[in-house]
Amino acid sequence: MADQLIRATAAEGGIRAVGVIATRLTEEARQRHQLSYVATAALGRTMSAGLLLASNMKRAESRVNIRIKGNGPLDGILVDAGLDGTVRGYVDNPSVELPPNSRGKLDVGGAVGNDGYLYVVRDVGYGYPYTSTVELVSGEIGDDISHYLVTSEQTPSALVLGVFVGSEGVQAAGGILIQVLPKAATDETLVQTLESRVTALSGFTPLLQAGKTLPEIFEQLLGDMGLEILPETQLVRFHCGCTFDRMLGALKMLGEAELQDMIEKDDGAEATCHFCGTVYQASSAQLNQLIVDLQSEASAK
Ligand SMILES: [Zn+2]
């Protein structure tokens, strides 16, 4: 099934649900960054969460950045997701591998660590991003994002994220976010019912692997609550907006002395985009041009 995002409502608009299938884009991230099993799970969960969080924003250019910084060996995760369905991301130590946890699952919590912070930056498209920070709960990412939604956004939320990685790569990835909106948030039983239903799912990837579609999963969770599935299926994908020109712009900011040093020592520069792993090469001639540009900008001041 193609990577996709589907939205729904229930309880006469009191409940908002969104589901994402991120299998292919997680596999693309795995290949681009040569991620270990546990790093694939960690990044896939965070990218799925990013797409889910971005899905309720308003302006087309809106984006969400999720930064997770824990005390585990993975060190950190950064994901950038947009309402447009694009997502990119990386982990600081992609080769970390850990034995399975006590439940026989990939030990994402152990890799991320349960001591640290989750930062969520919402850029609504007006140039004034909102940043929220919460402490990590377990490092399992789903718990941590739920904690953020409840404490920072004050929205009762049930979230399930999952990534299943086999020897052939990513077999299933994605998640579901169900939120109780302010008009219904005082309905304690509604909130509890949703939480217990999502908990009873026993994970997201088993449903995908059993061949369930997102509408069928919504039906299972919200079918008796006036479920309305929005007709649009949005395609989602791994995409990085980096270009050779942007890389040159970043090199230019290093300044004249540093550029001169690169020309003399390395006869050019090589830069790798953290987000997508693309390697860019700049020749000495191109670095020299940057120096000329810097000098003419300085003399124009
Ligand atoms: Zn890139």
From TrEMBL:
Keywords: Chaperone, Cytoplasm, Disulfide bond, Redox-active center, Zinc
Subcellular location: Cytoplasm
InterPro entries named in the record: Heat_shock_Hsp33, Heat_shock_Hsp33_C, Heat_shock_Hsp33_N
Transcription keyword on record: no
TM annotation in the entry: none
Main location: cytoplasm
Modification(s) after translation: Under oxidizing conditions two disulfide bonds are formed involving the reactive cysteines. Under reducing conditions zinc is bound to the reactive cysteines and the protein is inactive.
Magnesium recorded as keyword: no
Intrachain S-S bonds: C240-C242, C273-C276
NCBIfam families, alphabetized: PRK00114.1 (NF001033)
Family: Belongs to the HSP33 family.
Function: Redox regulated molecular chaperone. Protects both thermally unfolding and oxidatively damaged proteins from irreversible aggregation. Plays an important role in the bacterial defense system toward oxidative stress.
Name recorded for this polypeptide: 33 kDa chaperonin
Species of origin: Gloeocapsopsis crepidinum LEGE 06123
Gene that encodes it: hslO
